[in-house]
């Protein structure tokens, strides 16, 4: 689902400014394509690990615009695991046209969830040029409620579990994911995207580079590298066991 290239040298890695300027321009372009003639104002930037998210005022509506660059986390991107910015920008043009891009699948997942009657999800109102626009779900966030009422932490933490109850009804999995597009959200799928190939090795090599002293950094990196190696081996072992089980059925 993503573009895998060798890590870029530090001097050519994408900068935060390059990523943000590019993403903001794409949001304006996508909004103009969906709602021509409506004024577009980017309001507050919303921190996100997986993409560039901005609250946007489009005409008289307040929406959230999200852009994904090559379907990878921003941390991996600015660490150069997908190459120099020139390489990323060129690959992104092709990525935005793919029918299996991250936000195309995310839009399908949100619409499927909305059709289940719970949990409550943000409505998708448009997707274009690699940008998805959603409405906000009204009400305070769980974090805001916990800060305001810490004495009700147990009750507040139980609410999300209750809201997820419709997903546990018989047949929900088939209705939610008829094309199998949500499998990538599994722990195994996330692990493989993060740690496979040259990009995964580059990500591990740079762990703690900005925060840890040299000795600690190398120790942490080696521990993670060994853990990744063992988990890869375990994954191959489980695949073999699964194949044997299928043969014996």
Task: Outline the secondary-structure elements.
Elements: H1 16-34, E1 40-46, E2 52-58, E3 61-67, H2 74-78, H3 85-95, H4 102-114, E4 124-128, E5 131-134, H5 142-148, H6 153-163, H7 172-176, H8 187-195, H9 197-205, H10 214-248
Q: Helix count?
A: 10
- The protein's oligomeric status is single chain
Based on DSSP secondary structure assignment, what is the total number of beta strands?
5
Overall mean confidence score, pLDDT? 81
Distance between the termini: 32 Å
- Give helix and strand order, one letter per element, not per position: HEEEHHHEEHHHHHH
State the helical fraction: 40-55%
Approximately what portion of the residues adopt beta-strand conformation? Answer: 5-15%
Task: Please state the overall shape, judged from the principal axes of the Cα atoms.
Answer: globular
Low-confidence stretches: 1-6, 244-249
Taking the sheet with the most strands, its summary is:
5 strands, antiparallel
């Amino acid at each position: 689902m993503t573009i895998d290239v060798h890590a870029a040298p530090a001097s050519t890695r994408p900068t935060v400014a390059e990523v943000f300027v590019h993403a903001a321009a794409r949001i304006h372009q996508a909004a103009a394509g969906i709602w021509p003639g409506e004024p577009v104002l980017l309001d507050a930037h919303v921190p996100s690990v997986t993409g560039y998210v901005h609250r946007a005022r489009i005409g008289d509506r307040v929406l959230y615009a999200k852009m994904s660059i090559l379907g990878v986390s921003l941390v991996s991107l600015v660490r150069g695991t997908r190459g120099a910015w020139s390489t990323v920008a060129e690959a992104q043009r092709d990525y935005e046209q793919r029918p299996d891009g991250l936000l195309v699948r995310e839009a399908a997942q949100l619409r499927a969830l909305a059709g289940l009657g719970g949990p409550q999800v943000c409505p998708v109102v448009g997707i274009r040029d690699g940008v998805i626009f959603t409405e906000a779900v009204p009400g305070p966030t769980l974090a805001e409620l916990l800060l305001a009422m810490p004495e009700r932490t147990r009750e507040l933490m139980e609410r999300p579990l209750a809201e997820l109850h419709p997903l546990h009804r018989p047949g929900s999995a088939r209705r939610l994911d008829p094309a199998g597009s949500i499998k990538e959200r599994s722990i195994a799928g996330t692990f493989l995207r993060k740690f496979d190939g040259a990009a995964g090795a580059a990500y591990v090599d740079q762990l703690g580079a900005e925060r840890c002293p040299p000795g600690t950094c190398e120790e942490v990196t080696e521990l993670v590298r060994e853990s990744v190696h063992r988990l890869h081996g375990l994954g191959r072992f489980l695949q073999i066991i699964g194949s044997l089980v299928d043969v014996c059925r």
